[in-house]
Write a structure and sequence with these properties.
Layout: H1 8-17, H2 22-40, E1 47-55, E2 60-68, H3 71-74, H4 77-93, H5 105-121, H6 129-144, E3 150-151, E4 154-158, H7 159-170, E5 175-183
Helix pairs in contact: 1-2, 2-7, 4-7, 5-6
Length: 191
């Protein structure tokens, strides 16, 4: 139960269905939880919290807005802890976007052009370049897309996994609406 955030009855049913195999039961509960997440995705989430985090004696500051469906969940310890963990993640990893869909096409085109030019400069064959570009774009997304980043407290999870776990444990749709990160001394850049 502790490992999956599932209810006692669900855990018991999963263990019975898998003949007592803990790993299979945990996987079954995880898949059930992801199905629940998908069902909740279209629900309106207009409650929530704005978490503020300051790090390094005021050298880095983060504001993150996280929404849920009800004020009850928005005030819960689980939800507020999730919002705070997001603020810590943003402070530590400096993402630029929440989701892949948020990346401007120009940024992807610039990254593609840069990687293609570098590969040609290194003498890579034209047949290899598309795979090199694909790998590089995936690496770019893993670094700059919040939901694709490795969770700072557990490298085995992504931030998306953490979000899904929180949706399952709260029973509500949760949306990371927006964030802003400031670092002392950085200059404004046109995106």
């Amino acid at each position: 139960r502790e490992a999956t955030n599932a209810g006692v009855l669900d855990c018991r049913k999963a263990l019975e269905a898998t003949g007592g195999d803990y790993d299979k039961a945990a996987e079954m509960l995880r898949e059930k939880g992801l199905a629940t997440v998908a069902k909740r995705a279209d629900r309106v989430a207009s409650e929530g919290v704005i978490d503020v985090y300051s790090h390094g004696n005021g050298r880095v500051a983060v504001l993150v807005e996280v929404n849920c469906e009800t004020d009850f969940v928005g005030r819960s310890e689980v939800f507020r802890t999730f919002a705070h963990e997001l603020a810590l993640q943003i402070a530590a990893q400096s993402p630029l976007y929440i989701r892949e869909e948020d990346i401007p096409q120009e940024a992807l085109e610039q990254e593609t052009a840069k990687v293609t030019a570098k590969a040609r400069e290194e003498g890579k064959s034209d047949s290899l370049i598309p795979r090199i570009v694909e790998g590089s774009l995936n690496k770019y997304k893993d670094e700059y897309v919040l939901l694709r980043q490795k969770y700072i407290r557990d490298e085995e999870k992504t931030v998306l996994d953490l979000l899904n776990e929180t949706v399952v444990s709260t029973g509500e749709n949760i949306i990371i609406r927006r964030f802003t990160r400031w670092e002392l001394g950085e200059t404004a850049q046109a995106e």
